[in-house]
Amino acid sequence: MRIVEALLDMTRIGSGMPIQLEAGCSAEVPVIITTAHGTIDLAVEAVRKGASGFVTKPFHHRDLLRRISRAVGEARARTAR
Question: Which residues pair with residue 56 across a beta bridge?
Answer without folding.
Answer: 35
